[in-house]
Specification:
Keywords: Monooxygenase, Oxidoreductase. There is one protein chain. This protein is an alpha+beta fold and 206 residues long. The protein has a single domain (2-200), classed as Alpha-Beta Plaits. Helices cover 38% and strands 38% of the residues. The chain is built from 4 helices and 8 strands. The protein has helices at residues 15-31, 59-80, 118-134, 162-183; strands at residues 2-9, 36-43, 49-56, 84-96, 105-113, 139-147, 152-159, 185-200. It has an 8-stranded antiparallel β-barrel with strand order 1-3-2-8-5-7-6-4, surrounded by 4 helices.
């Protein structure tokens, strides 16, 4: 399975217009395409950051969709007030304890490998980090996306509420710090965002 994420650093006051556009125009268009497994949208109302991620059952389906979706990405950037930046990923791990309810929040961590054995990092995430994250109160789901060509990875963990996200922070940092040290990766950035649209229907992949 594969995923394409579009990140827009927009204007906070224009996020609601962006949510409406993605919900009413982008979501039905994307989910009608062959091979699409769904779409999610994360937002930060303080900074204006928005991340829209679509999932696909094959790399071929993801690439075939690009011609039709590129104009929609540009339109989304115009609406939200920032240029879209696109990343493409392989879905390495997907685990869902239960569907995310309204009001759920996510912690997204971007990482860079400092070696060439990406499968070792995936195995460590699956065997050691994921069980620890799942034991945290309020845990909904976690995913690990990788780009083997660029040597990058993205971990998203979803919690039932902002309160659960806040309460998880210290323990999550402990788990992350131990994991990245053992896996040989560098953390590039971390963001905590609201889950505005939850239609990313990736099946279990552990």
């Amino acid at each position: 399975m594969y995923a394409r994420s579009t990140t827009i650093m927009g204007e906070p006051g224009r996020l609601d217009d962006g949510i409406a556009y993605v919900r009413d125009d982008v979501l039905p268009t994307v989910t009608a395409m062959d091979g699409c497994l769904g779409l999610s949208m994360l937002i930060d109302r303080d900074t204006g950051q928005c991340i829209v991620t679509s999932s696909w059952d094959s790399e071929e389906a993801m690439q075939a969709s690009n011609l039709h979706l590129a104009p929609m990405r540009m339109r989304g950037g115009q609406i939200m007030g920032g240029p879209p930046e696109v990343d493409e990923w392989e879905v390495a791990v997907m685990h869902r304890d239960h569907p995310a309810p309204e009001g759920s929040c996510c912690r997204v961590t971007w990482m860079r490998l400092n070696h060439h054995d990406i499968d070792r990092g995936i195995d460590l995430y699956r065997a050691a980090m994921l069980p620890e994250m799942e034991s945290i109160d309020g845990f909904c789901s976690a995913s690990l996306l990788v780009n083997r060509t660029l040597g990058r990875a993205c971990n998203t963990t979803t919690y039932d509420s902002r309160a659960a996200l806040d309460a998880s922070r210290e323990r999550s940092w402990t788990i992350r710090d131990a994991g990245v040290r053992d896996a040989g990766v560098d953390v590039l950035d971390v963001a905590e965002l609201d889950l505005a649209l939850a239609h990313l229907r990736l099946p279990e992949l552990v």
